[in-house]
Design a protein that fits this description.
The complex is a heterodimer. In chain A, a hairpin with a 6-residue loop joins strand 3 (31-38) and strand 4 (45-50). In chain A, the strands form two sheets. Chain A has a five-stranded mixed β-sheet with strand order 1-9-8-3-4, with no helix packed on it. Chain A has a four-stranded antiparallel β-sheet with strand order 2-7-6-5, with no helix packed on it. By secondary structure, chain A is mainly beta. Helix content of chain A is 0%, strand content 46%. Chain B has strands at residues 4-7, 10-13, 19-25, 31-37, 43-49, 56-57, 68-72, 75-80, 89-96, 104-106, 110-114. Chain B is globular, with a radius of gyration of 13 Å. Chain B is 0% helix and 50% strand. In chain B, strands 2, 4, 5, 6, 9, 10 and 11 form a seven-stranded mixed β-sheet that branches. A four-stranded antiparallel β-sheet of chain B has the order 1-3-8-7, with no helix packed on it. By secondary structure, chain B is mostly beta strands. In chain B, 35% of the residues are buried. In chain B, strand 9 and strand 10 form a beta hairpin. Classes of the chains: A mainly beta, B mainly beta. The interface between A and B is medium-sized, with 21 and 27 residues.
Chain lengths: 112, 115
């Protein structure tokens, strides 16, 4: 699987949009971009994933550049409960046989 | 998505002893995995738990230290053997359902402290 690069930490004011960048310049054509987050003392939680089109769900939006070498996770109105470590992961879409490989992620602190 | 529970949620153990962690999923899953998260670090994959056969271990992890069982599609155990303080970590069970987007979901983790 391709590797990703994320800033180690970011701050965001409560109520503002949190934009978390991820670089995946060596991504292959059959690899998806997945985002997970880990709130303190909990297991990682799935947020969103995409291949090449922008995606949106009830939690977040995922913007993938046209060349697919980078992406941005957007939390539109960050709350204190969004404070967590966010992981950007690329992996081949499969039957689920391939486990996620975690990098260091971005520690997002939402500030009141 | 499926819900994973782990037992125990935390434990404090003496060096040289062993601890078995149980992982129960509320529905059948295709794959089950075990991860370790050392203090302040990211998650590291230990092994893939294979139903009815030996687990597949990642580099740096061996069966003698981390024996794993998976007797059916919803249950797995991880044993941390002959523990030392370096084994103090959070151990997480994970599974995939092979659904439309192959979401991988995680248990709450077992926080292990070895004295």
């Amino acid at each position: 699987d391709a590797k990703t690069t994320q800033p180690p930490s970011m701050d965001c004011a409560e109520g503002r949009a949190a934009n978390l960048p991820c670089n995946h310049s060596t991504i292959s054509g059959n690899e998806y971009v997945y985002w997970y987050r880990q709130i303190h003392s909990q297991g990682p939680q799935y947020i969103i994933h995409g291949l090449k089109n922008n995606e949106t769900n009830e939690m977040a939006s995922l913007i993938i550049t046209e060349d697919r070498k980078s992406s941005t996770l957007i939390l539109p109105h960050a709350t204190l409960r969004d404070t967590a470590v966010y992981y950007c992961i690329v992996r081949v879409y499969s039957s689920g046989n391939t486990p996620l490989v975690f990098g260091k992620g971005t520690r997002l602190s939402v500030i009141a | 998505s499926a819900v994973i529970s782990q037992k125990p949620s935390r434990d404090i153990c003496q060096r040289g002893t062993s601890l078995t962690i149980q992982c129960q999923v509320d529905s059948q899953v295709t794959m089950m995995f075990w991860y370790r998260q050392q203090p302040g670090q990211s998650l590291t994959l230990i092994a893939t738990a294979n139903q009815g056969s030996e687990a597949t271990y990642e580099s740096g992890f061996v069966i003698d230290k981390f024996p794993i069982s998976r007797p059916n599609l919803t249950f797995s155990t991880l044993t941390v053997s002959n523990m030392s303080p370096e084994d103090s970590s959070i151990y997480l069970c994970s599974g995939t359902s092979g659904g439309s987007y192959n979401e991988q979901f995680f248990g709450p983790g077992t926080r292990l402290t070895v004295l």
